[in-house]
Amino acid sequence: MEERKEYDHILTPKNAMSIAETVELKIPVPWGHIAGKAWGDPCGQPVLCVHGIQDNAGTFDHLIPLLPRIFHYVSIDLPGHGLSSHFPAGVPLNFMNYVYSLVRVLNHLQWEDCCYMSHSLGSQLGIYLAALWPERIKKLILIDSLAPMYVSPNEFLPFNRRLLDVIMTNEEKFANNKSPTYTYSEALDRLISNRRSLITEDAGRTMLIRSLVKNEDGSYSFSTDQRLKIGLRPMVTSKQQLQILNALQCPILLLASDIQALENWRPMKAAYEVYNKKQNFQRFNVDGNHDVHINSPEKIASHITKFLMNQKSSL
User: Fold this and answer.
1) CA 47 to CA 44: how far, in whole Å?
2) Residues ≥6 apart with Cβ < 8 Å to 61
3) pLDDT tens, 265-292?
4) What's the distance, CA 157 to chain centroid?
């Protein structure tokens, strides 16, 4: 309770932001555009907010209004998500192309550096961004993600063979079939039932705002790139992954709901051991599931507020 009281002057309704205060963005890129929306003070410290796979910028709609409005938050739809253009057809999706798309966003916004708040896949991309361009990321907020999965050396060939076979099969399937259509209720039910963890109906409706396209006959289709169903990970080994993690220089805040994965699952345990050696790494266990940030944002808002307001920006 003491920690929350310290920030009551920031989190009061008078200072809270609302969805109505957002400004829609459309950032040009060679394959189309990256969509997003901005909140808070345009002159404040910038915070780039990046969602998980098959989600969109709406994933932070319930959280950002609880954070200090003195910051400038930009929440984007990654390529192939929400209102953003898809990467060109005919080629497999590539993890590093998504990392580079974040650099394009920073360059367009003319941000020399920023804080980075993220969930799941967004966190994995942010880790690589911060390791490759350490001068551009001042603070890293990871919601329920430590690192992407790597590929063991002895699995490299069979993994890539299986992956490319699946990509070619799905490409043929998607090319010969029209996008499925749904009523709004069916789309909401599909979004909720197909997720890795349970989300509330209110959270589902929030996510659908940027994920549904209304057809001429009144039905709806999802705008998400179908290639994302295959998943997305970098083609690196465990040693290469550790090199990335060791290169991180900025303060890191981890908000973890799946404690067992951190402590017992070998790929993530190794990553956690690297983080835990860093001087300005903080971890808080969160009572919730993988989507706590949109289901129960009040459970993490005070941790993020304290980190943004007080944490030094260098290790």
Assistant:
1) 9
2) 19, 206, 294
3) 777 888 889 999 999 999 999 999 999 9
4) 29
